[in-house]
Amino acid sequence: MALKGIDIFKLTPKTNCKECGQPTCMAFGMKVAQGTAQIEQCPHMSEEALAKLGEATAPPMKSFKIGPADAELSLGGETVLFRHDKTFVSKTLFAVSADEAGADAVMAEAAKIDYERIGERMRVDIIHLEYAGDTAAYVEAAKKSAASGKAVILSVSDEGAAREALSAIKDARPVLNGANPDNREAFAALAKEFGVSLGVSADSLDALHETVQALEKDGVKDIILDVGTASIKSAFANAVQIRRAAIKSGDHSFGYPSLVNVAKLAPGDAGMQTALASLFILKYGSIVVMEGMSYAQALPLFGLRQNIYTDPQKPMTVETGNYPLNGADENSVCAVTVDFALTYFIVSGEIERSGIPVNLIIPDAGGYSVLTAWSAGKFSAGSIAAFIKEADIESKVKNRNLLIPGKVAVLKGELEENLPGWNIIVSPGEATSLVKFLKELDAA
Ligand code: SF4
Question: For residue 18, which atom of ligand 1 is closest to its CA?
Fold first, then answer.
């Protein structure tokens, strides 16, 4: 049961030493109860208090990793039903599905999706291998999937085939997805023996709940709940009910990540699978399994996922500094824009497209867009000039031409005063015009 701030306060040393960053132990207790501070931030908690609080303040959903050690993926750890309440934690993972015969083709297609958007690498996360009855071929497909460097889900309810595949790729830390009320005991033993997480399904939510409770008693720690494939309606209802039970009612047996197999909900219909995948990004699919992933599917899905799984409390920023683009050196022109990640990637993308070497200077602008940062006083002539001096740009770059965004053309005069010797050039108001502008500037 969730503890109140006062209960947590009673377990603190009550010395008000402030080492946790809070002014008093009471304030710390309130923060921990709200989930905005961790009990480990108090270095003076007794072992007994830590043990007591550890369980009571644990997130309502278990968090764990899957996949190979050098490319592990996070699942679970969610604490809210709605992103705007706080933030979602572990982004939805996309899996592409194949049986042993179709694995090569699906893997080759999946490998084509690999690009970067706002600093995040977008690629198919998981190969979902469906067992179709040929154990030798299944084991080979599992080996190839593991060798691809992606995480693997072994979707198999045959104990013998599961054991052979697990033996072959146990170091890749696959998910064993195939437990059900009938084979529960054997699959619990397999999951423990190979140290892997276990996917479980059942015909109804009640049966799923009972099976999970039995698995917990068997000692299985990392469980993934398959929301079922009877119909789109039931899969959606199950996903929502499971998450609500975990977050709202503190039902620990439903406090695990979920798996939604949209490949089985809409077989052969890539458009419907994409629509369903977008639905389950929002409503609680921890892993979404699709028949395949083309670029046309990936672009909207990864974009949506990135928007939903960024922390609304933190602006998306890039590091401040000088970014030499297109092989820029000390003689290349300088440009300045804000540290808001979306702005940086749009502007840098256009500059790269132009092929003109540019030193792109990024000062601390609070993570806001150009006009917002300017109106908040975070992107002013003073702050830009101060950053150019702090970052010692003048000793690293000889070129004294500085492009400023067209939207803040008003800064030109003040910047010339703040940066004597610099020639301030107002660039276009829209990044899309940068390519032509830079080429003309370079030719002038
Ligand atoms: S560090 Fe611990 S003892 Fe010190 S104020 Fe915070 S809660 Fe109290």
Answer: 5
